[in-house]
């Protein structure tokens, strides 16, 4: 099931980038919130990042108590706000940490981060335990997939072991098309 969803997602993502190069490539974004997600039984990954200033820049750190190796799965669900409530969106990813950090995080998020001790993309499999800071980082999404909804998107990223979340990150970001 998730294989199928992931494939459809990747195909849409690729198609949209190849065939519609000037549609939705640039977003205007605004962070509304960012929080850690508590694990169900234990929390191995925590996030203490705050939004600072009018520009809502990210400042803080994430703490990984263990290596994120193949014994974990990464689940990403994106909900969107519609008719006054959060609804499951069209993006649901179930994958392994190496794929997650290389093909999603490393591609779409890491390039936006300028001042941080996050490991380079080549050193994210296995993603080593440790504390990683982000300093006053403005997230200006570039090349994010145009299939993302405009409006409020709630990203839920969980690091899962044996079917149970062991912590993660949730953030809400408002996305609009750039008219430029
Ligand atoms: C950013 O975080 C660092 C470390 O936690 C803190 O010392 C600094 O005051 C923060 N900056 C702002 C603008 O909140």
TrEMBL record:
GO terms for biological process: detection of pheromone; sensory perception of chemical stimulus. Keywords: Signal. Coiled coil: none annotated. Residues 1-24 form the signal peptide. The keyword Signal applies. GO terms for cellular component: extracellular region. This is Chemosensory protein A 29a. The lineage of its organism: Eukaryota, Metazoa, Ecdysozoa, Arthropoda, Hexapoda.
